[in-house]
Write a structure and sequence with these properties.
The protein is mainly alpha-helical and about 120 residues long. It contains four helices and three strands. Strands 1-3-2 form a three-stranded antiparallel β-sheet. The radius of gyration is 20 Å and the shape is elongated.
Length: about 120
């Protein structure tokens, strides 16, 4: 089964006060850093260690100071011990998981339990 690599994106995100302060300080480069970090968080299941910041900065070819600022300064991410996450992204990921699980249960209810496949021996 092909998993879609998609998460919802509020089309008014650029009007958020936190993003406006980010843009005022780091320009659109800061916005790009923010969305890159959000994408990496989504791929990682919603949580990344703070020690990954140098790797992210290398991947984006920006300074580590800028990535640290985006993650730690503008109140865009929650920091928990040595990790960080986006509350909004995690809500989206949890909703998607809930809907996916409901779909699996609905399909099982409609079609019954999947039959076991018989192996065919080819000589």
């Amino acid at each position: 089964m092909n998993k879609s690599l998609y998460f919802s994106h509020d089309y008014t995100a650029s009007d958020d006060v936190k993003i406006l302060f980010l843009r005022q300080s780091l320009g659109m480069e800061g916005v790009g850093i923010f969305w890159y970090v959000i994408e990496r968080l989504a791929q990682a299941g919603g949580l990344l260690p703070l020690k990954i910041i140098p790797v992210l900065s290398m991947q984006m070819q920006v300074t580590e100071t800028k990535v640290q600022a985006v993650v730690q300064t503008f109140d865009l991410f929650e920091i928990d011990n040595e990790s960080f996450f986006s509350r909004r992204l995690n809500e989206t990921l949890n909703l998607r998981k809930t809907l996916q699980d409901a779909g699996v249960r609905g399909a099982a209810k409609r079609w019954g339990a999947p039959s076991t496949q018989t192996k065919i021996k080819l000589d």
